[in-house]
Structures are given as C-alpha cells and as structure tokens.
Amino acid sequence: MEEILSMKEIQALEIDISIWSVIFSLVVAAICSSAIKLLYVKYGKSLNNRRNFSNIFPMLAITTALVITVVKFSIALSLGLVGALSIVRFRAAIKEPEELVYLFLVIAIGLGAGANQYESTVILTLFSIIFIMGIQKIEKRKEKGGVMMNAIQVTCTMDNYKQVMDLVESFMGKNFSQYNFKSLYKQSDSVRINYFVDSVELEKNTKFSLLLESMPIDTDVAIFQNTPVIE
After folding, report:
1. What's the whole-model pTM score?
2. Cα–Cα distance between 179 and 195 in angstroms, integer?
3. Is the domain covering 148-228 a CATH 3.60.21.10 domain?
4. Of the chain's two ends, which shows fewer C-beta atoms within 10 Å, N or C?
5. pLDDT of 80-92, one tens digit each?
6. Better pLDDT: 10 or 62
7. How, if at all, do strands 148-157 and 220-228 pair?
C-alpha cells in the first residue's frame, strides 16, 4: 500500500528552475505566437478587427508559458494555481468560433514552451501555418470568381435599422457596380449589417463621407479590408 508523502518529502521534490530555461521558453513562446498572429491577420476571416485582436497572442502565450514553467516542478504551486484560477472570471465575449480556435492554438503553444517541449511547439506552429495556408489555397481554387472582397459593416439600433438599410442600399447602388448583402445580425438592442464590395472599387471610392453624413447619429460604419469570400 502506497504511503502518502509528507510535507518534507514534497519539498524535497522541488527543483530549482534554470533562468536560461525560462528565458528560452519565453522566447520560443513569443516567436511561435507572433507567427500565429501574422497568420491570423492575413488569413483570418473574422469581420472584427483582426490586427487588434491578435495583439494579445504573444502576451497570452508568454503568460501561459511562464505559469507552466513556475508550477511544473512544484506540487504546492500547482494546487495553489487551481485555487487561484477558480476565482478568475473572464467576461470577454468571443463572437466567432475562429477567434476561439486561434486562442486555443496560442495557449497550446504556451503550454508546450512552458513544459520545455520545444520541438513539439515548433512542429505545432509550422503544421498550423502549413495547414491553414494549404486550406486557403484549396478554397481559392474552388472559387469561380477567385476575388478578394472588402466588407462594409453598419451597426445601428433596432428602431431604425430599416431606414439605415435603405440608405446603405441607395449608396451602394449609386457608387458601386457590384456589391453583395452578406448578413444581418441582431445583438440585444442593436443590429449589425454586412455588405461585401469588390476590393478595387472600394479602394477607388472617395464618397464615403456622403454615407457617413446620411447615417443617423447612433449608427456606426466600419470598413474591413482583404476579407476572402467563398462562393
């Protein structure tokens, strides 16, 4: 029958952490997560601000790696971590599944680097990059038009969304030869409307001030560049 370890025996199991090992783990986590950040900015399909969202990737990976490095050699610290995390609440809403997938990928990189599994971490990063780039190329080949579209997103209140849609449709018809209504989302008391417009036409258009001036005061207009569209 196995005996329960005493506190002295647990303390004897503690291992000093090498400062160079910690630094190397953080560097690996930072480099790999930065590569994932660039990948997400270029190939992500989220209509939200991808560059702003991906700025947290390196810090998330570094923090995860540091936590794992500190607690992996200490049973007492690992138990304390469980208690500490149980009282932490994250209230940031992840609106799109793609964002959640990338966050899990960055956390996995931090876990691997913190556990000194450098080869596995680098392989995971390279595999993710190759896989996502390969999927993008396959999808582009399947596209009949094979074009990059830009998105115009309009957010307004429930009370005036019909009026806003009429104004946007009128502006699109007068200024763009080709545009597509993509989606309409209802979020509590607001409505988000998305349109896709040809990239070349959008870059050449200089009349967006007319659209902004015609919108009600409580309406937001956002433009997202280089959004791939699959028919």
Report:
1. 0.55
2. 7
3. no
4. N
5. 565 555 555 555 5
6. 62
7. antiparallel
